[in-house]
Design a protein that fits this description.
rod-shaped, mainly alpha, 98 residues, membrane, two-stranded antiparallel ribbon, transmembrane helix, 8% strand, 2 strands, transmembrane
Length: 98
């Protein structure tokens, strides 16, 4: 799912922004429910908590997308040559883990 979101062009910054907006929306919905509805503070608390629970999900998706962005950058790099000081020439970089 994370790879699909990454391919769709959604960046980690978008998810971090959505998390911050969710926190602001949580506060706003709590205040509006408390001030404009006659249902009492209990209902306002429920609205605030409901919207506030989205923030951790957005932040977690942001972290996962950041990992995917970093991983995708490493995978997309072509094999580069690196200077071999011992022989004075260049050699091909060995794949990771060998």
């Amino acid at each position: 799912m994370i790879r699909m979101l990454h391919k769709m062009g959604i960046k980690s910054g978008h998810m971090y922004t959505a998390g911050a907006v969710s926190i602001a929306a949580s506060i706003a919905s709590w205040m509006m429910s408390r001030n404009y509805e006659m249902a009492g503070v209990d209902r306002a608390d429920r609205w605030g908590i409901f919207v506030g629970q989205w923030a951790p999900t957005f932040f977690a998706l942001g972290v996962a997308l950041r990992i995917e962005e970093t991983h995708a950058d490493v995978e997309e790099q072509p094999k580069t040559e690196m200077f071999d000081r011992a022989s004075g020439g260049v050699r091909e970089r060995a794949p990771a883990g060998t």
